[in-house]
């Protein structure tokens, strides 16, 4: 199913529609905005994955232990 959506003719049709809707002056700006949004999404996903990989800090089991000492 995905192969049919990403065929070159479909991508060309999407580009033509975007060009008609946005115009030639705003199309690069929209592309940059979309690219930065995707980059930000990927960065947030990788940050979340790194947080999950880090072990949680275990509290000390020593009753005489004072934090920061």
TrEMBL record:
One annotated Gene Ontology cellular component of this protein: TAT protein transport complex
Keywords associated with the record: Cell membrane, Membrane, Protein transport, Translocation, Transmembrane, Transmembrane helix, Transport
GO BP term, example: protein transport by the Tat complex
Compartments (UniProt record): Cell membrane
Superkingdom of source: Bacteria
Transmembrane domains' residue ranges: 6-23
Gene Ontology molecular-function annotations: protein transmembrane transporter activity
Region called Disordered, residue ranges: 45-69
Function: Part of the twin-arginine translocation (Tat) system that transports large folded proteins containing a characteristic twin-arginine motif in their signal peptide across membranes. TatA could form the protein-conducting channel of the Tat system.
Description of how the protein assembles with itself and partners: The Tat system comprises two distinct complexes: a TatABC complex, containing multiple copies of TatA, TatB and TatC subunits, and a separate TatA complex, containing only TatA subunits. Substrates initially bind to the TatABC complex, which probably triggers association of the separate TatA complex to form the active translocon.
HAMAP family per the UniProt record, alphabetical: TatA_E
Protein name, entry field: Sec-independent protein translocase protein TatA
């Amino acid at each position: 199913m995905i192969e049919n959506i990403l065929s070159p003719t479909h991508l060309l049709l999407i580009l033509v529609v975007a060009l008609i809707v946005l115009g030639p002056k705003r199309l690069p700006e929209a592309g940059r905005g979309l690219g930065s949004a995707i980059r930000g999404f990927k960065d947030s996903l990788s940050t979340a994955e790194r947080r999950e990989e880090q072990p949680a800090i275990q509290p000390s089991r020593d009753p005489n232990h004072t934090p920061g000492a």
